[in-house]
């Protein structure tokens, strides 16, 4: 329900209807060629697993003397994750991104497989290349395009001809 409301709101903001493939691209991170509009349905399982894994030793310590202290929810969700993404790691990580990355990779691969022309594929790959879109310059707290990196340059040099624009005026393009 929330995901459909989110999609609808983004479509209204962009004044455009998204195909399923375009919506899938929009949920990818900027680094992966998307807009980083995250679906709750794709965040819930990784968030739960990371949270549960980070408190597992404390849970075991607190519940060690209790009958039936095994966390069946955690085991159920681990099984669900492994059904979708393969073997559960030997070391249960407490970082959500560790649990999330296989799903993101699968979404990215699905977006790529849905691109029908070589131009669409080239545009998508260009948008997801390391120096595309905006580079966030933390030293200056502003965002500017990054066309290339050289030696000792810093973000005060405005590259690619956008030096006169504020970040909100930079072009944004959704491919698909």
Global morphology: elongated
Number of contiguous helices = 7
Largest sheet: 2 strands, antiparallel
Average pLDDT, all residues: 77
Strands, total number: 2
Strand content: under 5%
Order of helices and strands: HHHHHHHEE
Strand order of the largest sheet: 1-2
Helix and strand layout, with pairings?
Layout (H helix, E strand, L loop, with lengths): L1 H13 L5 H8 L12 H15 L1 H8 L8 H14 L10 H19 L3 H10 L6 E4 L4 E4 L31
Antiparallel strand pairs: 1-2
Helix pairs in contact: 2-6, 3-5, 3-6
Quick synopsis:
This protein is mainly alpha-helical and 176 residues long. It is 49% helix and 5% strand.
Which key features would you list for this structure?
single chain; 176 residues; 2 domains; 7 helices; 2 strands
Describe the model.
The protein is mainly alpha-helical. Helix content is 49%, strand content 5%. Strands 1-2 form a two-stranded antiparallel sheet. The protein folds into two domains: 2-129, no CATH class; 130-176, no CATH class. The chain has seven helices and two strands; from the N terminus they run αααααααββ. Strand 1 (134-137) and strand 2 (142-145) form a beta hairpin.
């Amino acid at each position: 329900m929330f995901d459909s409301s989110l999609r609808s709101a983004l479509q209204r903001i962009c004044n455009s209807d998204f195909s399923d493939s375009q919506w899938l691209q929009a949920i990818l991170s900027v680094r992966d060629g998307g807009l980083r509009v995250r679906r709750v349905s794709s965040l819930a399982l990784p968030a739960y697993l990371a949270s549960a894994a980070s408190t597992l030793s404390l849970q075991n310590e607190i519940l060690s003397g209790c009958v039936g202290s095994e966390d069946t929810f955690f085991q159920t969700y681990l099984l669900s994750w492994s059904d979708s993404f393969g073997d559960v790691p030997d070391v249960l990580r407490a970082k959500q991104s560790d649990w999330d990355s296989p799903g993101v990779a699968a979404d990215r691969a699905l977006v790529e497989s849905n691109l029908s022309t070589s131009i669409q594929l080239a545009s998508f790959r260009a948008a997801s290349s390391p120096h595309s879109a905006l580079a966030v310059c933390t030293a200056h707290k502003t965002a500017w395009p990054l066309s290339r990196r050289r030696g000792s340059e810093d973000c005060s040099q405005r590259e690619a001809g956008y030096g006169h624009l504020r970040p909100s005026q930079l072009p944004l393009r959704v491919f698909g």
